[in-house]
Write a sequence for this structure.
């Protein structure tokens, strides 16, 4: 996977001057050793400077971790810690920060060996809020060296997403399709998140595409497509045009990323795309997404943003699907009921025309876009990648700006069932506990659009912390409440 940051964490121990500095130093060394035994040693840097009640120590530590190339920070309270200098460190560090604290090691060493970091974490959190400093604090931020090492490992994907967003550019082509107000995207929150956006016309893209006619790289891209599709290569006549389009997008990215390191694309894929380009872009979108460059359909800017976040968190391809259709009663009765522990209302089909990467499909074939072909000549609708989505754990999620510029998100963990869809497109039968209630009291009640991002695995914990870090209010992060836990809008008398 490309198009995402590598995380290097600097760990800085802090010490209150009325506590033994050796407690923090030795605990830091033990934590570093525990982390490197279990995780990638190359992504953790141990700062040799212990901040002992000193702003000058803070400056020295800050310069040291910057020099070491760290882009994420762990402030480690080996004892009570100096609340001012430790929070100033997070304030002046250019990247995501985390605060954790050392647990006491032994009941036989609670005089000179007691550090009171449990207490110090309270003061740290107070000072972070006082100074409006963002920091990640785990659910229970106090632990042994081994437990704190696990906390740092959990911080890595969160940090990766936050770092990525700070240097992300979303490139869009065209306005949203007519009658797709759900893809309306107030861009102010993008800037609040540190994301840049470059808005272009489809005409600009079409002109660039035409300039790539006869590009000498096209045959090599076609060969790569043929190898990926294998026996699913049912439309070989369209591959040259698709290769031309892929090169157009990649060259546009190289020429337009500017000072940003990472890119996502929001493209307008209909209605004029087919008649002018002569194909649909779905397969190319799927290929770029498989490389770590998310491409959303229908100029869904916040869909592209959500995909990028999920890509950083999971380090894997994601997809963007319509929360599409109910599972018919006969299909449910024949293939799901009694085999899987879900009611019919807990199942639905997630679908899109053919934008899901081939690695996330149980089988795949190059086909034409059936829905578009109902109104257009079939020959201009070629280029979808169709097949049933692979079964397994998934996380359905989205980050969205409302019309009045409020950040709102949802997260729901579930699975794709190993059940044939009997349908078309890139599609799967999804099952999420209490989906029916979640659909009504989160998706509908909170006015979310029809597109949801899908990460392949359970990443709810990480995504929740990313959204919190980005400033989404906890009450604005929807999730599928378990049975018996009512939503604020749920009728307690309804059955």
């Amino acid at each position: 996977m490309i198009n995402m940051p590598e995380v290097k964490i600097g760990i800085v121990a802090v010490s209150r001057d009325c506590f033994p500095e050796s407690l923090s130093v030795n605990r830091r060394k033990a934590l570093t050793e525990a982390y490197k035994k279990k995780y990638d040693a190359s992504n953790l840097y141990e700062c040799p400077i212990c901040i002992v009640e000193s702003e000058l120590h803070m400056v020295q530590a800050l310069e040291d971790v910057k020099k070491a190339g760290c882009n994420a920070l762990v402030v480690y309270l080996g004892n009570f810690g100096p609340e001012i200098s430790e929070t100033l460190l997070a304030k002046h560090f250019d990247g995501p920060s985390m605060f954790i604290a050392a647990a006491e090691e032994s009941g036989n060493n609670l005089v000179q060996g007691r550090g009171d970091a449990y207490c110090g974490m309270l003061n740290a959190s107070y000072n972070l809020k006082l100074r409006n400093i963002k920091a990640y604090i785990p659910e229970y931020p106090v632990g042994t060296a081994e437990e704190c090492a696990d906390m740092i490992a959990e911080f890595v994907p969160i940090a990766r997403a936050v770092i990525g967003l700070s240097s992300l550019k979303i490139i869009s082509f065209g306005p949203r399709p007519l009658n797709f107000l759900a893809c309306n995207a107030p861009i102010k929150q993008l800037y609040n998140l540190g994301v840049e956006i470059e808005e272009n016309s489809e005409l600009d893209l079409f002109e660039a595409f035409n300039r790539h006619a006869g590009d000498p790289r096209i045959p090599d891209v076609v060969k790569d497509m043929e190898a990926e599709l294998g026996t699913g290569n049912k439309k070989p006549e369209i591959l040259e045009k698709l290769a031309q389009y892929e090169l157009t997008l990649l060259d546009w990215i190289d020429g337009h990323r500017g000072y940003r390191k990472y890119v996502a694309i929001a493209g307008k894929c209909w209605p004029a795309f087919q008649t002018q380009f002569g194909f649909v872009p779905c397969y190319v979108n799927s290929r770029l997404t498989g490389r770590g460059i998310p491409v959303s359909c229908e100029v869904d800017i916040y869909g592209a943003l959500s995909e990028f976040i999920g890509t950083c968190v999971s380090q894997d391809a994601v997809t963007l699907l319509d929360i599409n259709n109910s599972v018919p009663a006969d299909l449910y009765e024949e293939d799901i009921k009694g085999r899987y522990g879900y009611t019919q209302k807990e199942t639905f089909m997630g679908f899109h025309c053919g934008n899901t990467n081939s690695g996330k499909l149980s089988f795949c074939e190059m086909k034409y876009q059936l829905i578009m072909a109902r109104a257009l000549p079939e020959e201009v609708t070629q280029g979808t990648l169709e097949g049933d989505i692979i079964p397994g754990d998934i996380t359905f999620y989205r980050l969205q700006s409302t019309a009045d510029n409020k950040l709102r998100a949802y997260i729901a963990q579930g699975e794709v069932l190993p059940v044939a869809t009997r349908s078309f497109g890139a599609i799967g039968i999804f099952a999420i506990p209490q989906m029916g209630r979640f659909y009504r009291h989160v998706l509908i009640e909170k006015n979310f659009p029809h597109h949801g991002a899908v990460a392949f695995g359970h990443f709810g914990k990480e995504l929740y912390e990313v959204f919190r870090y980005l400033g989404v209010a906890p009450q604005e992060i929807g999730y599928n409440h378990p049975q018996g836990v009512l939503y604020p809008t749920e009728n307690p008398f309804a059955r």
